[in-house]
Amino acid sequence: MKAVILLLKLSITVIIGQTLIYKFSGAAESVYIFSTLGVEPWGRLALGALELLSIILLWIPKTTLYALIIILGMMSGAIASHAVILGIEIRGDRGELFILAVVTWLSSAVLLYLMRERLKALGKNFIKR
After folding, report:
1. What is the end-to-end Cα distance of the chain in Å, rounded?
2. Which backbone phi and psi does 125 adopt, to 5 degrees?
């Protein structure tokens, strides 16, 4: 089980880490996407910062659940943006960015499911307050 969790964390980290480079460097694809969404450059940079924070939180055991919730939210937004506004294929990428968002979402969902006991405990602690 530990190996599966490690593999899922690594896949999420590699995918998000790769896209971070494009966001922070102002790559043409990222600028195009966020311009189309009407939030360039502040949306691109803010999302990049949130992605970086989520990757850091993912590797800290006490904050992994929070990271997964953030990542699921970000990837849900990415998937919806592709499906509704941007289209699955962007500038000839054959849907690669969309597929990476789906893979990251699925990896995060599976990891959250595998950690469901910790999620239940977190929910119980939240309700007590």
Report:
1. 32
2. -65, -35
Domain residue spans in the chain? Answer: 2-128
| Residue 5 burial class via C-beta count within 10 angstroms: exposed 0-12, middle 13-18, buried 19 and up | middle
The mean of the pLDDT values for the chain is: 94
CB atoms within 10 A of CB 81: 17
User: Measuring CA to CA, how many Å separate 33 from each of 5, 9, 106?
Assistant: 31, 26, 22
Question: Is the CB of residue 36 less than 8 Å from the CB of residue 9?
Answer: no
Tokens of 66: 């929070």
Q: Supply the pTM of this predicted model.
A: 0.90
Q: Fill in the amino acid letter for 1.
A: M
